[in-house]
Write a structure and sequence with these properties.
Layout lengths: L3 H16 L5 H17 L12 E6 L6 E5 L5 E6 H16 L15 H5 L6 H21 L6 E2 L3 H27 L35 H20 L5 H29 E3 L7 H9 L4 H22 L7 H9 L3 E2 L5 H14 L3 H13 L6 H8 L3 H8 L3 H8 L5 E2 H9 L2 H4 L6 H17 L12
Parallel strand pairs: 1-3
Antiparallel strand pairs: 2-3, 4-6, 5-7
Length: 465
């Protein structure tokens, strides 16, 4: 499994789950957080809406998103994917990893968590390590459609802080979904994130749920009410304690809320070619959320989060690959857990990062070389793409009609992986022997990169909410 600190973390979590009688940890944790959010939200619920009619559940899904589904009888379902819970937790862990040696300080009882920690300027090497670990996740999601994370050993105090921040982040996600219910939002595509799972619109389906009109303010309204719910939740958790402890809870809440938005921002920036009409860009939502805090908290949080924010920006910028020495230095760090992966596999991910960040010219040159070695020729499709005929290219390559529909319907979000996977499963690449599965994967990735860089698949900026 890894080093002793990692084993200790697993043991602590296991003990907590056993004490609560938890059979399905993620679902029970979500239900536990939801009970806190609902208690804080009750005074905000208008007559005629019953929060007890909300059902909360976790979904084992590779897309990091949350979703609210209203029903005609006045009930509703809130679904949170374990991928979203995991990503929020991971960002919290990466952030607390950078707090050393502040992790041994007593926290939560002074003016606020923010003012108590007072970290120094971000460490450039730590920022690079965090960026590599996030990019590892993004490359996996882009190429394989699977979230993947390399573990990080945290000391006990760091782990406690990370757990508190991650809980706050997930409570904000749940508060956002509860707010849709309280506000009476009826559209079926409401969700915390704009991933392809929002609205449960899946590739296999022949029809898709409607998408919220971009002029609506439902997501901003839900964010605003979720902020109010989180304020009430912080007050409830600090009830009976002194003013400093209350502000400490507010500090935890503020960091969690902003980290949840950073999670969405890095997903949108790195994974999606086209975001949903229903969701304003995460960066815009984060700015609106920050504006609700007092100026002192805005300034303090910007200082405290600047390191992880820089890591997110680097990891999310797919216009260039990360230097190979960054990957090697991160893999060699004693606090980074590589098991069960081989070094050969880890270095392959770094190489795929390079392909994912190639210029269109380099990708086309690479694909031409591969064709000269006897592999399929994708050139005719790219000539059609150059003339703006993406449908023609998809047909020439033998991409399925359902995949064509997903890719070309601009009202739907679409990820890099959907595009890459559609090419991977196309008729033109289906003849590659199964023994050359990696080669087929690389060809599809390079082809998807060329399409990603073109203007034809994206929604223009003015079409965003």
């Amino acid at each position: 499994m890894g080093s002793q600190p990692m084993v200790d973390q697993v043991d602590r979590l296991t003990a907590e789950y056993e004490a609560l009688g938890i059979a399905d940890p993620i679902e029970k944790v979500i239900e536990h957080f939801a009970s806190k959010v609902v208690r804080a939200a009750r005074p905000l619920c208008p007559p005629g809406r019953d929060l007890d009619k909300l059902l909360f559940t976790a979904l084992n899904d590779d897309e990091a998103t949350a979703h609210f589904e209203p029903y005609e009888d006045g009930s509703g379902l809130v679904v949170v994917t374990d991928a979203l819970a995991s990503l929020c937790s991971y960002l919290a862990q990466l952030w607390t990893w950078s707090l050393e040696p502040a992790q041994n300080r007593r926290w939560g009882t002074r003016l606020s968590l923010i003012s108590m920690l007072k970290p120094g300027p971000p460490d450039p090497e730590q920022i690079r390590r965090q960026a590599v670990l996030l990019r590892y996740h993004h490359v996996h999601q882009r190429v394989w459609g699977l979230p993947a994370k390399l573990g990080v050993d945290l000391r006990k105090k760091n782990f406690e802080i990370a757990s508190a921040i991650a809980e706050s982040a997930m409570c904000f996600v749940l508060a956002h979904e509860v707010s849709h219910f309280i506000l009476g939002h009826k559209a079926q595509s409401h969700g915390f994130g704009p991933m392809e799972g929002s609205g449960f619109a899946r590739r296999e389906e022949s029809a898709f749920y409607p998408v919220v009109d971009p002029k609506t303010e439902t997501e901003r309204e839900a964010d605003s009410m979720a902020f109010t719910i989180m304020e009430r939740l912080a007050q409830q958790q600090a009830q009976g304690k002194n003013a400093a402890a209350q502000q400490g809870q507010s500090g935890v809440a503020s960091l969690g809320m902003m980290l949840s938005m950073l999670a969405l921002h890095t997903l949108e920036s790195s994974l999606l070619l086209r975001t949903s009409h229903a969701h304003p860009p995460a960066g815009t939502r984060l700015a609106a959320l920050r504006s609700k805090f007092p100026v002192s908290v805005q300034n303090a949080s910007a200082h405290v989060l600047q390191g992880v924010a820089q890591s997110v920006d680097i990891a999310s910028n797919l216009s260039r690959s990360l230097p190979i020495e960054w990957w090697e230095q991160t893999f060699a760090h004693p606090r980074v857990q590589l098991e069960p992966h081989s070094m050969e596999y880890l270095r392959m991910v770094a190489q795929l990062d390079d392909i994912c960040a190639h210029s269109a010219e380099n990708c086309l040159r690479f694909l031409s070389v591969m064709h000269s070695q006897g592999l399929p020729d994708l050139g005719e499709g790219f000539r059609l793409v150059d003339h703006g005929n993406i449908l023609g290219a998809l047909k020439v390559w033998g991409v399925s009609e359902i995949d064509q529909q997903v890719i070309l319907t601009k009202e739907l979000p679409v990820s890099f992986h959907s595009l890459q996977d559609a090419v991977y499963r196309s008729k033109i690449l289906s003849g590659i022997p199964s023994a050359n599965k990696t080669t087929r994967l690389i060809l599809a990735t390079a082809a998807a990169r060329v399409l990603e860089l073109g203007p034809h698949l994206r929604r223009s900026p003015h079409e965003h909410a």
